[in-house]
Amino acid sequence: METNLCVAGFGGQGVMTLGKFLADATCNSTDKKITFFPSYGAEQRGGTANCFVVISDDEIGAPLGDVMDDLIVMNGPSLTKFLPTLRPGGNLFINSSIVDEGAVDRTDVKVVKAPVTELALEMGNAKVLNVIMLGVYVGYTQVIDPAVVWQTIEHKLASKPKLLPLNKQAFDKGLELGRAQR
Fold it and tell me: Does the model's pTM come out above 0.85?
């Protein structure tokens, strides 16, 4: 089995971090093959930034394909740009705080809504919106054990222990939202 995921949003929304957390957690705790392909370029800090994560039971022939199984969009421009790449029957995860779900003109995909910007602001720090969305993705898809993902986040943030409680709360909230929409 192979899962192709595209994560896209504004630079500064933690798109790359979300992808890296998922890729690192899967790589370090399973026997699956992983590819993480970031797109930095001129899109940083306000433009549309994106990354691709491929998780496979077999060798990965190419780092990314033209068709995604799952798509996480954190802003409207990302929806416009990447929705055509989502395969019929795929999963579309949208930041419903700022993405107009009315702009989703496809009925052949499953839409998973999460107001991650709003939730992050309610938690007091907009920077955790990516961790909430990671929780939504993991909770919904069950692509990897949530405990393993949390261990990776904990390890990556070990030098900033004050950030751990808020990130744990954010991840757990995301898991709850993702599981509720299964």
Answer: yes
